[in-house]
Amino acid sequence: DVKVTQSSRYLVKRTGEKVFLECVQDMDHENMFWYRQDPGLGLRLIYFSYDVKMKEKGDIPEGYSVSREKKERFSLILESASTNQTSMYLCASSLSGHGFDQPQHFGDGTRLSIL
Amino acid sequence: QQPVQSPQAVILREGEDAVINCSSSKALYSVHWYRQKHGEAPVFLMILLKGGEQKGHEKISASFNEKKQQSSLYLTASQLSYSGTYFCGTEYLGRGSTLGRLYFGRGTQLTVWP
User: Is B41's CB within 8 Å of A98's CB?
Assistant: First the structure.
């Protein structure tokens, strides 16, 4: 089974702090994704990466950056945390190649609170 | 490009059926369905490719209507374990699209009572 592991289930940080969320997958997947989940809004894509050192902006990249130095690890960075970034953050990974028949596998999520 | 899901919420008794719809204004290449239980990660259910095929997974099946750019998820004889939020994720081809990138709907909350 694919395992996507997020470093923390719950995290509390202060406004203005630099926050790192880590995600590791163990199935050699090329694609990795960071989503934000808020009630009633579904899953919104922040950034995704289809290869090491490659990244593309999703729908809501403002205030975030990402890093992918190794294939198995994809980090989300909140440069200067603000209260409106309080949310559930989900990481996912998928195989590349043809792309059209590859499901995304999700981690358990990190519930981040910014005070 | 976010697909529109309907209804927003469904309440059922065990054994009843439900249909959840996912509509796109843009030509679809594939539709993915996921279920998320409270406090857990979304879990993959099935993928449908363009061509109007229907797929099944136990008593949960889905169809893809390419002409209408719509997919429907059918839950038959619902069980308590079906409760959760169902999301569709849509994938597009063409200029500006990236294979593997999904656009998720806002979700349909399904509650099954005994």
Answer: no
